[in-house]
Amino acid sequence: MKFIVKFFPEIMVKGHAAKKKMVSQLNDNLRTLLLRVNPQVEIKRFWDKIEVQTADEFVPAVRKVLLQTPGVEHILEVIQYSNLETLEAMADKVAEHAVPWIEGKTFVVRVKRSGTHEFSSFDAERFLGGVLLQKGQAKKVDLHHPEVKVEVHISQQDLNIVTAKRTGLGGFPMGSQGQLLSLMSGGFDSTIASYLTMKRGIKTHFIFFNLGGAAHEIGVKQVALYLWSQFGASHRVSFVTVPFEAVVEEIFRSTHESYMGVTLKRLMLMAAEKVAKQMGIDALVTGESVAQVSSQTLRNLAVIDSVTNMLVLRPLATMNKPEIMALADHIGTRHFAENMPEYCGVISKNPVTNASFERMEKEAAKFDYAVLDQAVESAVTIPVDQIVQDVTETAHIEILNDIPDNTAVIDIRAEAEQQARPLKGLESVEVLSIPFHQLNKSFAKLDQGKGYLLYCEKGVMSQLHAQYLQDQGFDNVRVYRPADH
Q1: Could you give the angle at which helices 188-199 and 321-331 cross, rounded to 10 degrees?
Q2: Is 456 a known active-site residue?
């Protein structure tokens, strides 16, 4: 199978040097990603496209990579024939495929041609259309509103017949627009903000402020891993965890309750700025949306931003919640967000909505910033691609390779994953299917006289939910990892 990759239009309108650099970056990114799928994949770069050739067995995986890589506007799936010397020979090949497509329908032929030929693109369209009318059972040719468009690309003696056109991610190639640090809570907003910066070609690192709770940290790591693996795996990025429990305690000691929420956001920005500078990063991104919660009024955002000189991007600033949730549905992060443990609410009592700069400075003066400095010094940084290993090594959840008596396995993967890759070798064991986004509500209804082992593909989500259930008081839940994993 051959794919023709077309670039995001904003790449094509750049100056020659910028366009050349972006196309080269996209080519490098695709090569990095696709060689992991198929070491024999063929990738050819042209000034206006990239061509990818792969064996049929790798087509689904290659297609997925192409559609999720920033910088790709759309892909064409084509059938290629080479060494066709005449338009007549090309017409015969087109007819082999297109005659069934146009049966009983109106159609049009569109030809894109490059190279030297004795015919123009218009000549080729007329000729191919005539052959299809003669050989097929179409209604007629309709140049303006056809039911079927037969699209053909001719390059010298090569013929490419387009069988499908699919919309890509768009945006700029990853790594072409610098890098930033995303303040991640794992909810809807910070996740979508990170996705949008990744889509724009910005190498996006993650920073998480742990306010208390192992389950929350594991959950945020899972979301970061998902985002990176889906949309940014061409580049290595970092996940930074900053322990913020002592910072929260100091906020309670020093700050009036109405200013606690704004103070927390200011301290997060201050800490993120310190970490970003250590990493050589010039910008931060947050998921804040104007007026969505009390700390996100325009005045409060201005008061929060006054604590840093670093550029703070807020791609969701003017988006509403339904738009954000629709994007989460589109990219597959909604279930993560809906099941994320949340700890920020503990300091949102009687929040101010129109903070005073003068009052904020007075409240800030009472805070002991040595606590914040200590939190930043205690930050732990790991590469995102090592999250699975890190969670496995640091989580307090017992992982079993064998299944004890009176124990059931709960497959918490999404239903589509379960159907695609069903658990095998457990014929004598009770296996329950409860997708992870239903588990927290369903687990209490199960027979608590049994033990339960949670299973997912990589073991991260199962450890997250096992930790969460144990935090809720269930001590009969552990994680199942088959010995061959």
Answers
A1: 60
A2: yes
Q: Measured between alpha carbons, how far is 404 from 443 in angstroms, rounded to an integer?
A: 19
Which amino acid is located at 177 in the chain?
Answer: Q
Is 208 in a helix, a strand, or coil?
strand
Q: How far apart are alpha carbons 213 and 452 in whole angstroms?
A: 22
Residue 133 to residue 156: CA distance in whole angstroms: 25
| Under 8 Å between Cβ of 464 and 215 | yes
Distance, CA of 167 to CA of 67 (rounded, Å): 7
CA distance 380 to 242: 7
Sheet with 179-183, strands from edge to edge, namely: 311-313, 283-285, 179-183, 203-210, 238-243, 380-383
DSSP secondary structure letter of residue 207: E
Task: Specify the pairing of strand 179-183 against strand 203-210.
Answer: parallel
Query: Which tens digits make up the pLDDT trace of 62-98?
Result: 999 999 999 999 999 999 999 998 999 999 999 999 9
Contact predicate 266/232, CB 8 Å: no
Which pTM value belongs to this model?
A: 0.85
Pairing type for strands 2-7 and 49-53 reads: antiparallel
Question: How long, in residues, is the chain?
Answer: 485
196-216 tens-digit pLDDT? 999 999 999 999 999 867 778
Per annotation, catalytic residue among 319, 456, 461, 479:
456
The separation between the first and the last C-alpha atoms of the chain, rounded to the nearest angstrom, is: 31
**Alpha helical stretches, state H, 113-259:** 121-135, 188-199, 214-227, 245-254
